[in-house]
Amino acid sequence: MSSAPTWGNHLLMFRHLHYEDIREYRYWDPSTKGLDFSGMLVDFRAAPDKSVVVLHACAHNPTGVDPSHEQWKDICKVVQEKKFYVIFDCAYQGFASGDLDKDAWAVRYFVSQGVELFIAQSFAKNFGLYNERVGNLCVVAATPDALERIKSQVKLIVRGNYSNPPAHGARVVNTTLRDPELYSEWKGCIKTMANRVLAMRKALRDRLEALGTPGKWNHITDQIGMFSYTGLTQAQVAYLVEHYHIYLMKSGRVSMCGLSTSNLDYVAKAMHDAITKITT
């Protein structure tokens, strides 16, 4: 199971792995532009026991909506009741709040509750190594014996898949994480980037509200991470593309990293124009 919506490759990978019963659980609530938490839990409880469920560790892609700590605790209880196999997709640690520990809270809480899980972690964004395809797979198992059996299966998959991965990006990450001075510098860099995105969110919301743009815009700052589900309709997105050459997904998802102090006013006025002129 994966969230509706989710990163496009999740469902693609499930299909390539020949899963026959691929399900989605409710996540995005268009009426509140936030989390459909009750719907999410209903779908979890309706799923078969021992289902595989993909959860986003932080900065949910594409919505930018994350559960609160209390909601994560409730999710964990249902996961344990249903004996789900959990895969955490952790692609934005540090890029959500600027704090590595804060962004890892959900994963660490699940582990503290004795949940066995997989964590697929990417360093593409937080290390700026997108074309190096660097990451790791962390496995939390209940017993040493289970861990050894999992390790043997992973080795077989690796051997049949890519055998030997490229080393350059991995060595960059390894060197940085092991060197205290470089590690400290890196943490400062990701905090700078995260703070810039947070500042762009606030600035966009402030401008839309100052323009009197119809609707509520608190969701822009309530959401977190690189992406925002703006709530714009497909027709409004098409208007932005045609008249302002502002490009975003048809779903209304926008990359907050594309905003800057030099284009904020242009983008806000364009969104205001699209929303006031296109009402469908």
Topology of this protein?
Elements: E1 2-4, H1 8-16, E2 24-26, E3 28-29, E4 34-35, H2 37-46, E5 52-56, H3 69-82, E6 85-90, H4 100-103, H5 105-112, E7 117-122, E8 135-140, H6 144-161, H7 168-178, H8 180-211, H9 218-222, E9 227-229, H10 234-244, E10 253-255, H11 264-277
Parallel strand pairs: 1-2, 5-6, 6-7
Antiparallel strand pairs: 3-4, 7-8, 9-10
Helix pairs in contact: 2-3, 3-5, 7-8, 8-11, 10-11
Account of the 3D structure:
This protein has helices spanning 8-16, 37-46, 69-82, 100-103, 105-112, 144-161, 168-178, 180-211, 218-222, 234-244, 264-277, and strands at residues 2-4, 24-26, 28-29, 34-35, 52-56, 85-90, 117-122, 135-140, 227-229, 253-255. It is α/β, with parallel strands linked by helices. The strands form four sheets. It has a four-stranded mixed sheet with strand order 5-6-7-8, covered by helices on one side. A two-stranded parallel ribbon has the order 1-2. Strand 5, helix 3 (69-82) and strand 6 form a beta-alpha-beta unit. Helix 10 packs across helix 11. The longest helix is centred in the C-terminal third of the chain and has 32 residues, at 180-211.
